Amino acid sequence: MLVAASSHRLQPLLEFGLHTGLRKGEMLGLRWGDLELAEGIVSIRHTLQHTNSGGLSALKRVKYPAGEQSSGAFH
Question: In what order do the strands lie in the sheet with 41-44?
């Protein structure tokens, strides 16, 4: 799949998703402040979701029981 996407403009996002296991809404909800590049940690604080009115998207805080989730899956 990565070979087929190698020339696509979203290839880095696809590769990031495959390596981290994040859902589409979690990846699209990321902000630069959620990434700790030196430590290789990403914090999932927001998710991009469709709304019921007009199919627009809304950035919402995650609803995990323990609060924000972190993944050390990229480096």
Answer: 35-36, 41-44, 69-71
Structure tokens at 31: 């902000």
Give me 70's structure tokens. Answer: 């972190």
pTM equals 0.67
Q: Which amino acid is at 3?
A: V
**Residue 26: C-alpha distances to residues 4, 12, 57, 60, 69 (Å):** 23, 15, 13, 10, 11
Q: Tell me the two tokens of residue 5.
A: 């996407």
Give the tokens for residue 13: 């996002």
Q: What is the mean pLDDT of each run of 10 residues along the chain (75 residues)?
A: 79 86 87 89 85 73 61 57
